[in-house]
Amino acid sequence: MKIVIIVIFSLFLMSTINVYAEEDELILIEKQRIELEKRSEQVKNETDRLNILKKELSEDIIKYTKLLENIDKSLKEAEELGNKRLKHVAKAYEAMAAGDAASRLTGLDNETAVQILLMMNSKKAGLIIGNMESKKATILTKEITQLRK
Fold first, then answer.
1. Where are the alpha helices (DSSP H) in the chain?
2. Domain locations in the chain?
3. Contact, 94 vs 128, CB < 8 A?
4. What is the C-alpha to C-alpha distance for residues 7 and 13, in angstroms, rounded to an integer?
5. Can you tell me the distance from the alpha carbon of 40 to that of 46, in angstroms, rounded to the nearest whole number?
6. Do residues 133 and 121 make contact, with C-beta atoms less than 8 angstroms apart?
7. Is the pLDDT of residue 149 over 60?
8. What integer pLDDT is reported at residue 41 of this predicted model?
9. Tens of pLDDT along 77-89?
């Protein structure tokens, strides 16, 4: 009889241990499920945040592209206006006597003088350069040839 009681008690203890082990496993599984849900929510929140940033970035790219287009347009208009004015000045120099034009161009900085000469009729520009002092004529001619390379 003692053996039966010992066997029954042993079975009872083992089943109790099994129940506790199963409860521990269930608790562990539940903790893991909760942790996975938290991580899933974090990933979802981060994905949402990144999508918002992506949208904002796309909008900024569109905005700055339009701004660059406007700047390019303004620069082209300014360049056209500058070229128009430069052509007007070149025509004025072409209308002058070669000696007068040479003395006036000699007083200008080299870059401006070169730009004016390049806008002029090549025969008239040649006459004007021929009336300049040789040192200035040489400098301007070198700058003109370097621009055309």
1. 2-95, 98-107, 110-119, 122-130, 134-147
2. 96-149
3. no
4. 10
5. 10
6. no
7. no
8. 93
9. 998 988 899 899 9
